[in-house]
Amino acid sequence: MQQVIYGKIIGHIYDYIIVEHWINFDSSTTISPSQQMNRVRRCTGCIQHEQFYNIHKSSFRMHYTSSCCNRYYLATATHIPNIKKIPHTEFYDLLFSTFLVKQQSELLYNSLTTSRFSPISPSVNLSDPSTVAFNHIYKHIHKPSDINALIDIARQSLHLTSSTVYTDGSFSYNSSNKSSMGFAFQIFNTNSPISFHSSLYHSQPSAFKAELFALFSSLLVHPPYCTINIYTDCQRLIDTYRYLITSTDLQYTSKNFRLPLYELWLRIFDIINTLHLTLKFYKVSAHSSDYKNNSTDYLAKNTTLLPYFTLNDFPNSDIHYFPLFDGSLIDSPLRHFIKQLTDCKGFFTFYNLDRNTKYRKLSTDWLCSFHYINDDSPSNVTSIYNSLTKSRRIKFLLEELPTLNRLLLMNNRVYRNFTKCCLCTMENETFNHLWLCSRRISIMNDIIRQSQQFLLSLLRTINSDRHLITSIFADICLLNIWHLSFNPRSFTFIDLIKGFVPSELSSCLLRLNSDLSINRSVISNLLNFIYNSVLKEVWLPRCTLTKSCELSNNITTSSKRSRSRNSSLLSTSDLNLYNIDYSLDLVPDRLFSWSSIFDYSFTSGKLFSLFTRVVTTPL
Fold it and tell me: The pTM is what?
């Protein structure tokens, strides 16, 4: 029997509305209910109530929780425009009689049933206790196509008391360096496995996030009081679940925001507690001979062309506000997110320095360059030696070595007549001249040859195919990075000394090995070899020679420290200290604002962290 349900809209979920139930109040027993004034009040609780949609409402100086509410399809609702509140009571008068409201609702119902529109599948009876799991699907899932697919699986699982489920997630970068995520689960309780797989939007991507979505979606299709045996190759998923069931992190709002992917964990435990599910986890080896895990992994990786799997807003009475960035939920710990935001702002400041004009126009592998700068020691270890090493590397990167040209900028009274290279005594000593001095050419050429041989030995450690190694090594040797010169429009060996990595070098290594972490380690070891070689063969002998020349020119430590007020009258632009080719500014940058860098970091999962754990020490 169809009936008219009065209610007040208190929320929206895609094409559905959350309605607070209101009931009729017959104010007179002598007038027919269909003809008297339609008076309503809030329902205090009845069969229409669904606790999943019990939304906490708030207004000025007033808080209450709806005692009776449910979800209905928006197209089945009719609007009542004129209402009037009765003062000092809880009643409202609808300026339409009950008869008119029923008549209008009947016309709407007839138009829906005679069309091809079906708001809810007739085979789904949400009042049936056996289909209570369907409520979770409607509650959490946004797209009708995903809802229908999961309900079909849930129908086939209604009889289960125990279930065997394989879950897997996939996270990768495509050829254009964009991230993609997908997940899949398979239920192996019949002759033919039941499977579901989908892709995820690349916001704050990670492999763990994909694994967690696989677990979450698999729970939605199981009936109440079911024991689920979950097989996964993600040990972190198992450890985190076991930690959460014994901790209080999900019980307190302040702790929720410290937990990665806290909102998804809240959804998972909401399903577990409501449906009284029992979860048992089993670790399986990834890419082993387990065909069930391999087939699930195949489904998770082949989701690129599928539409994104999206969720509804999660109605949680304990958390009143969820942090968002650009309309997306921040599901990482807030401190980590703010650090990531600050790192991107710092990188943008560094990126736009005049001295980096060349690298803004060329294809630079910034992440690999930063990995080398931070690869002096493990992240949890700090020492004076490591701080000195990192300080020197950054001075190489920024061309801040105390060459005579730079010392002239710092104290022109002392160094105004002492700017020539102490080795060749012909040209001013600049950063580039350190490596291009005619008296050091043979030393630098030896370093280049040794660096190439060292790179070849590194390539042999990551791949055993000697023919492929020979081919790729030959291509690398043809790159301009081995030329000992300064060129504002291409990478040379001086850029490797500084620590900048050209993307073409990274691309060559990708042909040999697809593991980005291994490739970055190879490049970092190569740059570290170059750094140690030029430090030992060029820079330290230069410092010894310069000190003796300073003494012969009566430049002492005390004279260096004494400065007159007008001693520093020069600027970097006067000396063109960084050899900037300002004509390159005519070429447009690929990055226009720090927000564009953060958007890239936010949607790719890549971090721009350069100046971490730096202790300023003398060179």
Answer: 0.61
